[in-house]
């Protein structure tokens, strides 16, 4: 096994050592990047040193952070634990897809012993760990653990609700979450995918990891009081303390704010948007994992044609219909690859975002004040869509389900109406929410204040 050497002691010049924090991301882009953004903010706000646990193939994600804070942040690289259930070389969820989460989580648990050995041999061991909420077993490393939620407090509250109520899944009837604010009712198939629906050992271990987070020393959310105040308060109630921090949206203040690693032709994209009327363009992107089927692509393309709405579709590897680009030339643009989503959503020409409602996309849309046309595709995303559509009124449902092929006439009609006069009120609420959320991250804002509280908490350990 590769021996991991602890970083050298920082120079103290007669002063006490800086607080040393261990950060442990989960290897999936939607989890890892927000936690690195949080680490960036902690380094800006506090005089600390940080060690980030990482495996070799995930090390490149740390490059911007290591460049920005060369004296404060170091990477601690452990070999990825091999598993016969995982294809050779897999170290990130993007290599296997979301269905591989239980397998990745099982492999990550095998890092416990080498991490404990590293902690015991370190001359200035960490005073706390901030680890992803998929890594609940890190509660048991002998130091205070702050669970980091790359998702929202609403989803976390639902996971906690089911921690001792798994028997409810024996029914096919909708489930009322009576303990939560608003007592929401969900269909079984719309509940978080982390709630196991099969009795396999890996699923049960994953369930235990994701449902033991409220027993952590603290909880940190990529969310904010103005979006999820009632659920952040619920978390405080259930944990029995106030070490609950809503520090988002991290996309507004993080290292990835500029999306400089985009693979699309950014100049062509922005130039095209510059030539469009304010609020006239629908931006379409379904995250880093989802690839539409041919039938879904055909239906969406035809709906866009029927809607007569201007659009930008970031399609990655989706099978776009032959001739579609020619039929919408001048009105629509299709790009392959990775787009600068924060910059696109912030462009004045963009008035709507057709999204799968993954939490990072949600936070980027909310921060930009952009209305969401919601097509939730996974169970977690149904939770996010409920928050946006019913609780906040900043989104409308246009389709539901990862395998659903939308009706082209209906989808085209909803897109046209929502992007037109019928969507005025929703767009207005989204814009107002965006102003409120952005203010939260400014100096003295509620998210900035929670970040300062977290820095103080870490410094006192």
Automatic annotation (TrEMBL):
<protein>
    <recommendedName>
        <fullName>Glycosyltransferase N-terminal domain-containing protein</fullName>
    </recommendedName>
</protein>
<keyword id="KW-0328">Glycosyltransferase</keyword>
<feature type="domain" description="Glycosyltransferase N-terminal">
    <location>
        <begin position="21"/>
        <end position="251"/>
    </location>
</feature>
<dbReference type="Pfam" id="PF26168">
    <property type="entry name" value="Glyco_transf_N"/>
</dbReference>
<comment type="similarity">
    <text>Belongs to the UDP-glycosyltransferase family.</text>
</comment>
<dbReference type="InterPro" id="IPR002213">
    <property type="entry name" value="UDP_glucos_trans"/>
</dbReference>
<dbReference type="Pfam" id="PF00201">
    <property type="entry name" value="UDPGT"/>
</dbReference>
<dbReference type="InterPro" id="IPR058980">
    <property type="entry name" value="Glyco_transf_N"/>
</dbReference>
<keyword id="KW-0808">Transferase</keyword>
